Every structure is written in C-alpha cells, then in structure tokens.
Amino acid sequence: LFLQFVFHTYTTAFTLVNGNGTPKAEEYSLQQKQIFLGLGAISYSACVGALPLAFVNRYTLKSSLMQLVVRKLLPAPLFGLTSAFTVAMVRSPEFDNGIEVMDRNGKVVGVSKKAGEKAVMETALSRAVLFGTTFFLPEVLMYFVQRARFVKNPRALVSVRMTVIMSVLAGMLPVSFSMFSQCGEIKRADLEPEILSSTEETEFFYNRGI
Fold first, then answer.
1. Which of 61, 111, 143, 166 is buried deepest, with most CB atoms within 10 A?
2. Is 7 in contact with 15 (CB distance < 8 Å)?
3. 183-188 long-range contacts, Cβ below 8 Å, gap at least 24?
C-alpha cells in the first residue's frame, strides 16, 4: 500500500504541474479543488492497486494460478487504469470549465469544454499505455529469461528485473509523449457554436499538456 501511495503521489504531482492552465473559477480556489481531487485519486488508486495482493495474503491463497494472476498479470492493467483515472480526476476542471483554443496564428478564439475533454482523454490514454506497458512487458521478458536460465543467482535476477523495468520505462516515455501532439488539433465541427460564431477558421489548436 505504501509503495502504491508513493507511485500515485508522484504521478498526481506530475499531472498537476503539467496540465493546461486555462481553467479559472471565481467561487472556489481551483488549486485547492485539484489538490483535493488529487488526494482522493491517490488514495483510491493506491487501495485498488494493493487490494489484490492484500486479498491473496489475507486468505493465504497460494495456488500457482492465483499467484500468477495477482503477481504477474493483474498489476499491468491495474497500473494503466489507475494512472488514467488519476489524470482524469486531477484535470477534471479542464473539461468542466474548458481550455483555450487558438487559430493557426496562435490567437485565442475562445474557451472550449470539448477541447478540454479531448485533451484530458488523450493524456489519460497515453499515461495508461505508458505504465500498463512498463509493468507488463518486463514480466514477459523476465519469464523468458527465467525459463532459459540465463540468470541463476536470485540476487542477480532482481538486478536484471530492475534493469529491464527501467529500460522499458525509458523506451516507453518518448512513445507515450508522442502518441498525441503536444499542440492538439480539433476540428470546427467539434467545437461549441458560440466559438464558431466569432471566427471563420476551420481548424483549431490547444495545449494538451503531458
């Protein structure tokens, strides 16, 4: 639970710092709301991530199939889903209040909730791919390493596992960040009528965040 809490605290802080700064609210402190949402997302994600292992340990389920599912197969989709959930929670003000959209020349033409929703969903998807793959692929690679008996020393095996995880993470970072352009694009037909009435542009852009 502690390690899950640390992991999701880091990813939540990263999300807070690198979101789109457009949303404004007069009736409450937006920063306080995001911190509150972040704490809720951290607590929920940490509990969800730790629950399967706690369940197995509590009821001493030691069958090989159960251990395989809980320790090897389940962490990857859980990390992917909880990472995406954290992004959606922390950056929810962006699709509640909207974000700025610009024309080709960089001129702000309005604030769009639809663009905010698109930016958050794209970022959540890229984060899910990043951490889901980072926790899934090393398990697959380590399975073949152990099966081929390339490494026999248990301590050396731990070092190899950490090296593989760090290598996959380093490789997936640029892949995740490049899945969607930092300067996102949204079509005219996807924007609100009040924005369209003020311009004849057909393509609009927004800062997606990371």
1. 111
2. no
3. 183/207, 183/208, 184/115, 184/118, 184/119, 184/122, 184/208, 186/101, 186/112, 186/114, 186/115, 186/118
- 45 close to 90: Cβ distance less than 8 angstroms: no
Tell me, yes or no, if the pTM score tops 0.90.
Answer: no
Q: Give the 3-state secondary structure of the chain.
A: CHHHHHHHHHHHHHHHHCCCCCCCCCCCCHHHHHHHHHHHHHHHHHHHHHHHHHHHHHCCCCCHHHHHHHHHHCHHHHHHHHHHHHHHHHCHHHHHHCEEEECCCCCEEEEEHHHHHHHHHHHHHHHHHHHHHHHHHHHHHHHHHHHHCCCCCHHHHHHHHHHHHHHHHHHHHHHHHHCCCCEEEEEHHHCCHHHHCCCCCCEEEEECCC
